[in-house]
Write a structure and sequence with these properties.
single chain, 213 residues, mainly alpha, Serine Threonine Protein Phosphatase 5, Tetratricopeptide repeat, 11 helices, 0% strand, globular
């Protein structure tokens, strides 16, 4: 998968973040938009997902300032959840390139709050970054645990689908998002987010087909 395709998939995540943050106003909205765009561009520029042998070194050598989850979590879950301090600390480790430290911090939080769905989502997000974009078995387990703890909340399946799409698992992401739509009320505000992402995944899948021999 070429780097420009990865950029398109990250643009999918940016779009979701913008939709979720749509209620913000003024300077705070501008800051959120800028940070999300910088995060997507930085991954597309530095990630080089096609170079499998370079992935472990790349993850350790670069810092990732923001992810779609880190940018949207306060708007989705509130600022004063017990997970906040642990995830903020984990963000700092990730931003300076210590992705293992970022994972370890969230795991420490989970030892204190084992039933916190936001921390489980944070662990999944940290594991995906540590795996340089790959959805590892541990990341899958964390996403699924978050879904069991917050079955009515769209975030576990929304961010799980983003991670799958960025890793190239288009079909699995589509199944997850279509199930989310089937379970969502007709007037749910997140339906448009999921529908837009499904369209972008279709476009990315078509672009991938046209570039292959």
């Amino acid at each position: 998968m070429t780097s420009w395709l990865i950029f398109l998939l990250l643009a999918l995540a940016v779009l979701a973040g913008l939709r979720w943050l749509g209620g913000m106003r003024g300077a705070s909205l501008q800051f959120a938009l800028s940070a999300l765009l910088i995060a997507a561009a930085g991954y597309a520029w530095q990630g080089r997902p096609g170079l499998r042998e370079a992935r472990p070194a790349a993850a350790a050598e670069r810092g990732i300032a923001q992810t779609p989850f880190s940018m949207a979590r306060k708007e989705l879950f509130g600022q004063f959840d017990a997970s906040g301090a642990w995830l903020t600390l984990s963000d700092g480790y990730r931003a300076r390139g210590d992705t293992k430290g970022a994972v370890d911090i969230v795991r420490s939080g989970l030892r204190k709050y084992p039933d916190n769905a936001v921390l489980w989502l944070g662990l999944a997000d940290a594991l995906v970054v540590h795996g340089d974009g790959r959805v590892t078995p541990a990341a899958r387990a964390a996403f699924e645990r978050a879904g069991r703890l917050a079955p009515q909340h769209p975030a576990p399946r929304l961010f799980y689908g983003m991670a799958l799409a960025r890793s190239g698992s288009f079909d699995e992401a589509e199944r997850l998002w279509r199930a989310l739509l089937a379970d969502s009320p007709a007037d749910a505000p997140w339906r448009r987010v999921v529908e837009d992402q499904l369209k972008l995944v279709d476009e990315a899948r078509e672009m991938q087909r046209t570039t292959q021999p």
